[in-house]
DNA sequence: TTGTAGGCGTTATCAG
DNA sequence: CTGATAACGCCTACAA
């Protein structure tokens, strides 16, 4: 920068002015400076810049893992919004590195990030951790809520999505259902469960008649639970399995195929999320669409708004996205 | 930090010494300082730190998009290696934000990153762009090569993988093949194509007898090309489609299903990458496994090594991963 | 073993 | 409109 100043025959301050246009500069000088910058291929040193201002033009993105396409889509949404705000994204995937979130809270705190997008999902959703994260900057949550952690949050209406998909299944005549839920501690798990139960109650079934098994949102757990559930004789085992996310539903599909069970003739299956590959299984997976990309995008937008908002002003109001059942082949009429 | 020093009754340098253990400090003082740090919940300001040293403990990761699970897996591998090296990862997904890489080269240059992992894939694989990226720090490439851009590169042996899967298809008696390739400009596209052709030549077929259509590595292009290819009458159209990645193969599968073509009875399909969901289509996709996670991990390790290596020393030797055909249901004997 | 002082590249506050 | 100058928070010779 000093070089630029010399090359243009001005002082550092003037250069700084044109860089941030934070001061009045005569056209002739401005042109000379811009020129010098190009000639010398000068790039401002961001580290110095953040030291001085307290902003980093960088936001943190904390999510469980990237291999679940749902999360990947959220990440792309965040990335897009960040790009529009000329910011960069720090990726933190605690489960991918098999360490507690603390690993990141420690690293992130010093970065003077502008803010953080937090999508809890695995084991690390405890309140204390959230608070710790919050010390690294303003936080916006996506897809999940943490009780007692009161930050702007972008979610979809899981509950009514679950209700609708369960209603669809019940309308096909199924009466012996089973639910493969997500980790109990998660808000979404609870929401989806209530949704399922509302539908079940509305059809006059006793909630206790529907077993709920806890999965971990990954394929393997779907397959394992299906194996347990479907081992019973045909006239006792469930005729429909409601899964709290698509990955577990894939696991179920996979198990059924290897066990020689036909979907949907022998057993119907539903998922949740509607990740792109859900269309591609065969039969296609009946599931509940959540606008993952839009959710990530809005969350990041919200974060930027939050950053700009003076602390006194009312916090921006986050939207609640609607969900939508996608009917495909994996649900059919109840057998018998 | 000043507060810490006061609280512990020492000077700033002493605190700095214990922080980086870069100087001898008496046990008693060290303990007092550590204590003060804990009490005050002090976190070093990374911005200041990088300004002083020239390292950021941060690496950049540039890849086309995250929704392709292959890339997501690479990203997780990188993330893991970064965590082991106590570094953070800056995520850059140019296609997700629908802008040229330049958007990032500009942003990255000022960050004084320790280095960059670069996985070209979409439109942005030109040499000039790579060089521009290299100005932001040492670069390691994964999965692709760019001619004339000579940096350490981690790849898998696409060519022999392609050869083997084609051989498998030919061994099933298929003679009317078609290839759905990736973007021509990519090194992997070229490699896979040569692999396919080697196998084809080895079976005495004339290479020109096998049409090659160029896709863009996404589902949609697979479906579109399949539609064109399979419109011909049954005894003229190809009996097997070799796709340069799994996503395009999914597109083909999808098209076949909607067009009422049975896989593999009417047409056989192969993919490339073996992303986790490839097991879940039905029939399962016969494809070529690339160790995506390991490749990302090794690339990041390599980058760290490169950073440590004095410029004079010989650059570390990158491994070439082997590929492996995964035989599943999407390939069957040739009809007739 | 500990303290002092200079500077990393910017921005912001002043006075000209 | 422009130019000096003091921080920002940390590291590292060097001196004590």
Automatic annotation (TrEMBL), chains A, B:
The keyword Chloroplast does not apply. Transmembrane segments: none annotated. The keyword DNA-binding applies. One of its GO terms (molecular function) is DNA binding. It comes from the Bacteria. Keywords: DNA-binding, Transcription, Transcription regulation. SMART domains: HTH_LACI. Residues 1-53 form the HTH lacI-type domain. This is LacI family DNA-binding transcriptional regulator.
């Amino acid at each position: 920068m000093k070089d630029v100043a010399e090359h243009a025959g001005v002082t550092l301050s003037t250069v700084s002015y044109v860089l941030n246009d934070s001061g009045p500069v005569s056209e002739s000088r401005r042109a000379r400076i811009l020129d010098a910058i190009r000639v010398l291929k000068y790039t401002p040193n961001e580290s110095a810049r953040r030291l001085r201002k307290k902003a980093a033009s960088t936001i943190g993105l904390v999510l469980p893992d990237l291999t679940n396409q749902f999360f990947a889509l959220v990440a792309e949404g965040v990335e897009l919004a960040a790009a529009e705000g000329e910011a960069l994204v720090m990726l933190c995937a605690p489960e991918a590195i098999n360490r507690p979130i603390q690993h990141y809270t420690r690293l992130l705190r010093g970065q003077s990030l502008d803010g953080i997008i937090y999508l809890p999902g695995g084991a690390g959703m405890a309140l204390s951790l959230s608070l710790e994260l919050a010390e690294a900057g303003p936080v916006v949550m996506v897809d999940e809520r943490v009780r007692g952690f009161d930050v702007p949050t972008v979610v979809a209406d899981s509950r009514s999505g679950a209700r609708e998909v369960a209603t669809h299944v019940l309308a096909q005549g199924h009466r012996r259902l089973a639910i493969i839920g997500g980790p109990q501690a998660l808000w979404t798990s609870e929401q989806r469960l209530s949704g399922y139960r509302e539908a079940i109650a509305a059809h006059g079934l006793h909630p206790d008649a529907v077993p709920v098994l806890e999965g971990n949102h990954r394929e393997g757990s779907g397959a394992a639970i299906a194996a347990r559930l479907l081992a019973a004789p045909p006239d006792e085992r469930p005729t429909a399995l409601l899964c709290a996310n698509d990955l577990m539903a894939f696991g179920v599909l996979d198990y059924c195929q290897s066990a020689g069970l036909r979907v949907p003739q022998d057993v119907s299956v539903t998922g949740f999320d509607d990740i792109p590959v859900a269309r591609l299984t065969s039969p296609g997976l009946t599931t509940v669409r959540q606008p993952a990309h839009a959710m990530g995008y809005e969350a990041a937008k919200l974060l930027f708004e939050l950053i700009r908002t003076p602390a006194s002003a009312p916090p921006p109001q986050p939207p609640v996205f609607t969900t939508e059942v996608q009917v495909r082949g994996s649900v059919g009429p109840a057998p018998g």
